[in-house]
Each structure stands twice: as structure tokens, then as C-alpha cells.
Design goal:
With 163 residues, this protein is an alpha/beta fold. It is built from seven helices and five strands, in the order ββαβαβαβαααα. The chain has a five-stranded mixed beta sheet with strand order 1-2-3-4-5, with helices on both faces. Strand 2, helix 1 and strand 3 form a beta-alpha-beta unit. The C terminus is likely disordered.
């Protein structure tokens, strides 16, 4: 499966598969726009596995063409690039540098784990009437965690969050 998505009020969670398909980009952005129209600007979380293939030139162009609509539908976007190795660390650095070019510093951020994201947005979640636990439970319930022990979908959740 190329991607999975789930939402809880204004929080939109996207789980990429091992590759990003061109045919997925527009439906994902459409989901984001629809959720924004229903609830207001979204808090987007994208979970990216450590073995995700980098987008080719055509794909980067397509993502760029749709980025404005995604940003317009969002109050913030959080990319979780999973993994603990050198490759994952480099990917986080590269993505961070590319995203800085969008001029959206503060609205777009890169993280290593889902825990980092929910800790980063905890205050906003409270304002929205949500908890970190609800986000983690939604991800678990939808099977959006990887089975790889090295990545666990970026989860380093202490027992208090995972219950």
C-alpha cells in the first residue's frame, strides 16, 4: 500500500509506504483540503519509513506544484523521517534544508519520531481538545506503525503514551 491516512478533527496523519507514487499526491492534498474545510487549518503529520525511496525529479516537481495547496490547508506540517542510522539522519538534514527554502520555517518541521512530534505540538493539541495519547492510539489502531524493530514508525513512546 503506497500510503495510509487518518484524521482526528484537525489532525491529519499520513503514513507513506516504501515509495511515493505520483497518483497519490493529488488525492492526499485533496484529503487535506477537505479536512481543512470541515474543521479549519490542519496539523499535518507525515510518517516516512527509513527505506522510503527518495522522489525523482518528476515527483519533486509534482510535490512542489501541490505544496501551496497543502500549506494553505495547514497551520503546521510535521515530517517524521524514521530510523536511527546515518542514512535517516542525512535524510532528515536534507529534508530540513529543502523545507527551509519554502520560507515556512516554524510551520514545517522535521522530526525523528512520532513522540517528538506529539511533544512538539502538545500545547496545540490541548487547545484543540486532544491529547498526545489520542494521536498515538489512532496511529496504532490504523496499523500505521512499521513492524521493523529499528524504526517502529518513529515510536519511542513511553508506556504512559502507549496505553
Amino acid at each position: 500500500m503506497p500510503y495510509q491516512s487518518a484524521s482526528l478533527e484537525r489532525v491529519y496523519i499520513l503514513r507513506w509506504g516504501r515509495s511515493v507514487l505520483a497518483s497519490d499526491i493529488e488525492p492526499i492534498v485533496a484529503e487535506m483540503v477537505k479536512l481543512c474545510k470541515q474543521h479549519g487549518p490542519i496539523v499535518g503529520i507525515a510518517l516516512m519509513p527509513p527505506d522510503l525511496s527518495p522522489p525523482d525529479g518528476e515527483m519533486r516537481k509534482l510535490i512542489g506544484q501541490n505544496m501551496r495547496a497543502a500549506l494553505d490547508a495547514s497551520e503546521s506540517l510535521h515530517y517524521v523521517i524514521e530510523g536511527t542510522g546515518f542514512k535517516s539522519s542525512i535524510m532528515r538534514s536534507v529534508v530540513t534544508n529543502v523545507l527551509m527554502l519554502t520560507g515556512q520555517r516554524g510551520r514545517i518541521s522535521v522530526h525523528g519520531t512520532l513522540d517528538e512530534v506529539v511533544a512538539h505540538i502538545e500545547g496545540r493539541l490541548v487547545e484543540l481538545g486532544l491529547t498526545k495519547n489520542q494521536i498515538v492510539q489512532l496511529v496504532k489502531a490504523r496499523g500505521m506503525f512499521t513492524s521493523s524493530p529499528s524504526s517502529k514508525a518513529g515510536l519511542s513512546t513511553p508506556p504512559s503514551l502507549g496505553r
